[in-house]
Amino acid sequence: MDESVKHKVVMVAACPFPANHGSPASIREMSEALVEQGHEVHILTYPIKEDIPVTGPKIHRVSFPFLNKKRVKVGPALEKFVYDPLMVFRLIWLIWKYKIDVIHAHNYEGALIGWLAKLVTRKPMLYNAVNNMVDELVTYDFIWSKGFAMKLARLLDKTIPFTGDYVTAVSDSLKDYLVKLGVKKEKIQVLPAGVNPGMFETNDKSTLRQKYGYGDDDNIVIYTGSLDAFQRIDYLLEATAVIKPKLDNLRLILAANIVNPKDLETIKTKIAELDIGDITDIVEGLKLEKLPDYLALADVATLPRTDCPGHPVKILNYMCGNIPIAGFTGAAKGLHHMKNAVLAEDHNIEQFAESIEWLLNRPAMAEKIATEARRTLGSLYEWDVLAQGIAVIYQMLRSGDYESLQPELKRYIRQSYQPRFWENRQMDADALPADIREQRKGERRQNVVRIDFIERRRVVDAE
């Protein structure tokens, strides 16, 4: 592909922007990387924003009198029924005014808005899928009937992904889900969330603990992200209650960038019921610039969410922060048990507690696992690499040539981001894929059949 070819793109971000969570963070970093590579990027979004600098892209906002322009939240909201139709008309106008080449729509609302504009302007659309509705819509309590919410979720899952001319899915499992629904394999590509490793260069642990009021002997477990119900903070609280009697100086930090008042009250009630209030700190409204500090002062980072089709951005933050990760398998995209994380079966709280405790009691092994996670990250998830692959997809959409540009796309974006581990003793080395032979020599193949947690600990201790 001719790298001198530059694209004019409009990002459809039907969400607060910029904001310190999930999709808005990814859209911001993706757009900045594309601008750095010479592309012209416009972002169409809501008037709601946080005080986070955005360098490069041109931001366009819809607005409406009397609507709340300060509250940042995740999930459905009544004001979206006003903002979204306004975005359709504004998007059509932006495409005509700036001679846009490609519509890049994010999430379900962005795809619907982009599709309606595509019908009018005939511009190609890339749909970036980060979730499915079946797993999330019923958790928001926005729709009065859970049954109706599930039916609506299934309808959205079976229609919205087909509005794009090409689809990127944030994880392998989400790609597989969309392919099963009927999205053509040749029109979908895994595109994980990216990360900027430079932001995680920070001060030493002891200095940061003193700064934030923690001691060197504290065993600090941290969760970062929103406190919405689908994040399953209740699982983390129950696991903490299991560990508390077994471990001295245990501290839990819930570092929340987004706080839903209803969910926060539920969490506080749960903390009181479990009698862990004396060891639990809730940080509300965590600023992006403070995130590296909180990760650096902690001993273990957690993923309490289960059954997640997307790729939680917090995983990449944890990996970049060089902090050992304990979590459930359903949300652990890009992680491998006892290789670069310690994982429990979904919804198994006792096993989740054991995973956290295991890491806290074995600092040398925890450091090894964290280092391996950082090594796994490599350059695969860095935005300057991923952005070059996105530019190839833009060229595919503009030219209609999806086949001949595949080799170029593979230079920057993998076909799969699922870790692959191979047992060299059980197969001929010539049978291994070339990239595995060169980059994964000696690594063990992931075992599909899980073994008892105590047995797994014994295996690792023997290594």
From TrEMBL:
UniProt cross-references to Pfam families, sorted A to Z: Glyco_transf_4, Glycos_transf_1
Positions of the Glycosyl transferase family domain: 205-375
Molecular-function GO term, any one: hexosyltransferase activity
Transmembrane residue ranges: none
Listed InterPro entries: Glyco_trans_1, Glyco_trans_4-like_N, Glycosyltransferase_grp1
Stretches assigned to the Glycosyltransferase subfamily 4-like N-terminal domain: 25-197
Gene3D superfamilies, per database record: Glycogen Phosphorylase B
Protein name according to UniProt: Glycosyltransferase subfamily 4-like N-terminal domain-containing protein
Organism: Alteromonas confluentis
